[in-house]
Amino acid sequence: MLNKALAFSALAALAAAAPRPQLINLDEIPDYTPTVTMVPGLTAQVVTYDPTAAISAAAADVTDSPLLQEKRDLLQARAACAAQPTMANVYNIDVSSASAFRADTIAAGKANNAVTPSGYALNFQNSGKASSAYGYLGYQTVSSYDPSICANKCNSITGCLAFNIYFERDPTVEPGTGCTNPSAFANIKCSYWGGNLDTTTLTNGGQMRSSFEVAIAGSNGYTTTKYQVISGYTTPKFLNTAVMNAPTDCNGADTYMGYKLFNEAVFDARLCSAACDAQSAYNIANPPSDGSKPKLCKFFNTYILNKNGVGQGQYCSMYTEQWSSTYATNTGQNRGSDKYTMSFSFMYGNTTDDGTPACASTDSAFCSAYINYIPPVSTIVSSFTPAPTTVTSTQVNVVTSTIYTATITAAAGHAARVRRDGNGTETGLDYSISIIESIDPSYTNKPVDSPQTASSTGLARRALATPAKFANWPASRISASCSIIATGRATTTVVSTASAPQTTVAVTSASTTTVYGTLTVPGVQLASPTAIIGSLSGSPGSYDDLYYHLDLPFPIGAFGKTSSSIWLEINGCVSLNTGFGDFVNERLPSTNMADTTLLGYWDDLYIYQGTQQGIYYDITGEVGSRVLQFEFYTSAFQRRTEYFHFIMTFYENQVGLVKYKYFDISYNGLSATVGAQSRSAGKFLQYSFNQAVINPGLEITIDTNAGTMTHTG
Ligand SMILES: *[C@@H]1O[C@H](CO)[C@@H](O)[C@H](O)[C@H]1NC(C)=O
Ligand SMILES: *[C@@H]1O[C@H](CO)[C@@H](O)[C@H](O)[C@H]1NC(C)=O
Questions:
Q1: Which residues, if any, are the signal sequence (predicted)?
Q2: pTM metric for this prediction
């Protein structure tokens, strides 16, 4: 005999944009009175549950296949005064009246001293009422008050989750004409249920049969503690009387898919998993017409819905994403004087896929790169009818913002280092710089920069790391999830005007186009670079604030001060007579630097281990007109994603003139000082101080003799 059926559901329309309430839609729940047909005088009654049929019915219901409804066999009424099956009064319980029966201390002692069978929990004890719960599975009379007998029987009944053992004052013959109040005996019954028991199920306190009063005593209830494990789903989490009220996902999408309600069957979590799986299959086969991804069921919450304590059915809420039990916040609803509560609530999630989506707020750059997303261009045409005397013409200013998803360093072709003077003789010494000493100012109060993983193979700059959340996802899931949030839609707005105006009012509107591209950054530029610090094959260490005393083959200088014994600072400067490590740049004139200093880019620059960062030099040209170049290929202290790349050029035959050329400057000089200064000469030339004017391609020529600064680019 199969009890089941169809259930009621709200899964059909899944396209709603706003999160739908997950509270139970009480207006949609049909009133339901569970069928419990305990027949007086029957020693046992069997109601069967067929899980295979019920589960396939639950799955088939998703595609609206109707199910046959079978009726229970009804038993014939017995004739008045016919003998009833009785049993010996083994406990000598007082059956003389209903009130004496209810007050009997022996019955109470049996109930209060009963041992809870293993695998079950006690729900109530020594009640004067019997349960009427969800999922009636029959009853039997037993010869002794022993819950373990009922537990063994329940264990053998498919779908049995709970039982109620109690004494019942029953008539020895069928009450009726000629025997309206026959003598009584103490019956012992176990009733079996496919849903949980609790005190709200205690609704049967006995009844009058003719003048005979049926009464209940010593009623104990027990519910299983073994929860259903479903293959492919996580260990069930017992939520007891609370049910989920889940939030929207990280993209604001509703994760609640809808619900199904099963009734006339026992509680079986597999009904809900079957519906969940069938719903995913159905949605895949019938994808949304707007091109969006089908919603897949990855999580469900199933429980018994009770109206005034009477089980109305097994509710099954489905979700696209797994949520923690902290969202199980709904513990009941009222409608008028009716109180709806939930019991035996469990949640289950898909073990291989928790349904977490890629999030637009954190993953769109990665996702756009991962799926090689090309932003579509859409044109919006809006028609506009001007007022009789006015027309508006709209000018759309498109602002393009570029997000670089990968960085490639353009390799520079470095030639062998051979230097020859005018008559062809190799004169290497005239073209090399000796490092006399290196000084580390070791600022004790400066925070330590966190270590960077060394890599000997070139730069790994602005690389696109795979976010940790995607680490164990199969490629298909990343692609599917990413395709939802890859961003960038170029929009062109065209406004068509209906008729000729008399006056025209012009308005402008802005639209932003986001494009993704690959950023190519220049590599080291010098033809024959020699490292003063760092290395093209990967810097051996990370360096900060160091400065170097160098011996040049010819003197350089500024404002009439010259020397071939100069100092080179990592922090973007070249100075005469002494060096300095100060990393906080100042406005010129400054007393925090060497007396005579050329400031190519005074900022807190930094060289990171394992990168091609460093300071390189090259000397070219003939003796007498040699050209000295220092190339800074650096990053910044604790700002490892910022880059500062520039060359300072000095001329043997134009002492006092210096050129600065910039290639890659993060934030265009917002935290740097550029210029030249000599305190002893009382002069300075400041090109910029903390101004965003140092653009890639800029070349500044500072002539400290003439007191001029010119620039190109
Ligand atoms: C869990 O999710 C995966 C990926 O969508 C799916 O292939 C699988 O069938 C799901 N498992 C169950 C039990 O529904
Ligand atoms: C080449 O010029 C250098 C000076 O620049 C001089 O010392 C050398 O003798 C010259 N060599 C020849 C072969 O003339």
A1: 1-17
A2: 0.53
Listed in sequence order, the residues at least 6 apart from 412 whose beta carbon sits closer than 8 Å to its beta carbon are 522, 523, 524, 525, 526, 527
231 lines ligand 2 (CB under 6 A): no
In this predicted structure, what is the pLDDT of residue 4?
A: 35
Cis peptide bond upstream of 388, omega within 30: no
Pocket of ligand 1 (CB under 6 A): 232-233, 277, 296, 350, 352-353
Tokens of 670: 């917002």
What are the residue ranges spanned by the domains of the chain?
4-30+227-349, 78-224, 360-425+457-519, 522-712
Which residue's CA is minimally distant from atom 4 of ligand 2? 421
Q: How many CA atoms lie within 13 A of 30 on its CB side?
A: 13
Give the chain's residues under pLDDT 50: 1-20, 65-76, 416-417, 452-463
Distance 60 CA to ligand 1 centre (A): 18
The rounded Å distance from CA 293 to ligand 2 centre is: 79
Q: Whose atoms come closest to the Cα of 623: which ligand?
A: 2
CA 422–ligand 2 middle distance (angstroms):
8
Among residues 348, 336, 255, the alpha carbon closest in space to that of 303 is found at 348
Q: Is any ligand 2 atom within 6 A of the Cβ of residue 623?
A: yes
681 contact partners, CB below 8 Å, separation of at least 6 = 558, 559, 560, 561, 596
Length of the chain (residues)? 713
Give helix then strand counts, H and E, for the chain: 7, 38
